[in-house]
Amino acid sequence: MRAITGKIVISPKRLVEARQSRGYTRKELSNLTMIPLQTIREIEKGSLRPTKAMLISFSEHLGLPIEFFKKSYRDAQEKSKKKVNLFVCGSFGCRITEI
Fold first, then answer.
1. Which of 40, 50, 67, 70 could form a disulfide with 54 if both were Cys (CB 3.0 to 4.6 A apart)?
2. What does the pLDDT look like over 5-61, one tens digit per residue?
3. At 55, is the secondary structure helix, strand, or coil?
4. Which residue has the higher pLDDT, 38 or 82?
5. Who contacts 43 (Cβ-Cβ below 8 Å, separation ≥6)?
6. How far apart (Å, rounded) are the C-alpha atoms in residues 6 and 11?
7. Are the beta carbons of 47 and 71 closer than 8 angstroms?
8. Distances (CA, A) of 3 to 56, 61, 80, 89
9. Which residues, other chains included, contact 15 with Cβ-Cβ below 8 Å and sequence gap of 6+?
């Protein structure tokens, strides 16, 4: 049998949604999966990628397919929508408008 190694790109938002939809706190998910609480926090913030073994554990304990957690085209589109601040001045004065 081949070892499960490496990291996979997921949508942190999807892990949060899955955990919350099952009514679990981060600590409860940590206890179920045996993944340290700090690790779960960092995965949910997007500052750490889970290993394949972690992803399998999330999938099993949250009852969702692994594909649910993977970053989708929609997630990439949302991230690419950057806001721009525009400095607008007129007879009303000046203001910053986000577009």
1. 50
2. 556 788 999 999 999 999 999 999 999 999 999 999 999 999 999 999 999 999 999
3. helix
4. 38
5. 10, 12, 15, 49, 50, 54
6. 17
7. no
8. 13, 20, 35, 61
9. 43, 44, 58, 69
User: Cα separation of 75 and 19, whole Å?
Assistant: 18
Query: What value does the mean pLDDT take over residues 73-92?
Result: 59
| Backbone torsions φ then ψ of 7, nearest 5 degrees | -125, 155
Sign for the pseudo-dihedral over CA of 60, 8, 80, 98: positive
Alpha helices in 1-99 (DSSP H): 12-21, 26-33, 37-45, 52-62, 66-69, 73-80
Buried b (16+ CB within 10 A) or exposed e, 34-59: ebeeebbeebbeeebebbeebbebbb
- As a whole number of angstroms, the distance between CA 6 and CA 8 comes to 7
82, two tokens: 């950057």
